[in-house]
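QUALITY CONTROL LOG
STEP: pairwise intake check
CHECKER ROLE: data steward
CRITERIA: each record must contain a sequence immediately followed by its structure tokens, with no blank fields

ENTRY 1 OF 2
RESULT FIELD BELOW
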Amino acid sequence: MGRLLASHPNYDLQKWVDFARKWGDTQEEKDYYESNAKRLITTWGGDPVNDYSDRVWNGLIRDYYVPRWINYHNDTTNTKKQNMRKFEESWILTPGVSKIKPYDDPFSVAKEIYDTFDKENSETPIITIEE
């Protein structure tokens, strides 16, 4: 999913982060603006509106959502929610976005993915209409 999203210029966390960092003059200011930009699209608003402004962006799914939910579902402690909040805050305060190579031909890849799932579901309609 990340590589497919990386293939489109509008679905990239790195652009959001780069734009925010441009406002800072020092490394400290750049990190501050990056953390605020990350907070806006993740935890801004707190409970119960956490993820209020979420995005389906390259980098955000791979670096934030997937690890967050893996940690949450693997956590067997009584402090699951607090541990998830610690992960979120740590991610927000850690500068940078992981890199991934976009597809050269994202349309072919998207079609291949669609065709794969279309074949799997061709025998079973998604919606049935009862008469």
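ENTRY 2 OF 2
RESULT FIELD BELOW
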Amino acid sequence: MIIEKKKAKRVLLIKYDTFGIEILKTLEKINFMKRNLIFASLIAFATMFTSCQQSGTQTANVAANDSTTVVSNIAVINIDSVLVTYKLAEELNAAISKKYANMQSKLEQEGARFQKEAEAFQDKLQKGVFLSQQRAEEEQQRLIKKQEELQRLEASYSQQLNAEQAQMNQTLYEKISAYINKYNTPEKYQFILNKATLWYSNNAFDITADVIKGLNEEYDASK
């Protein structure tokens, strides 16, 4: 009987070791949400903007290489500078950062509570506190379910943040694109390019400051 109890305890300890690894994976996923939020949306937006500008850059290059064509009316914009100084971008980023902070706090609290319960389970298991193997397995299953709930919560928060960041990027892209079209009416420039797509551009072609000023004036007028 004693031998059987020892065997059962060893089986549970082995199961717990595997369970413990899964706990660490869950906590690592939670900690991952703490990193890279501040610039994540900016990078995603810059990527979107760069992709949409790529065809324009290629067209400009073709025109510049054509000996029979002279392209002089070109302007460039530093989209990174726009994104960090445009008031609407600052406002939207602040809102997402606040929501993220609340989600992070909730996950940290739930993660710390879960970890304490898991450690308590391990301590009881090693000390032989459980009256039966069945009772120990029931407690282990309860913790596994709690772990799965925590993983689902983390995944739900990640999806919410990703969706809101995507919506924010789309809003900024539409606002900036609309203003650039307005700024270039009547047509002053044949090409307005994202500076990030270019190896080099003369500062004389840079209209970033004008665009930022105009965007923020529109933002202030809308408040």
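INTAKE CHECK: passed for both entries
DESCRIPTIVE NOTE, ENTRY 2: The radius of gyration is 28 Å.
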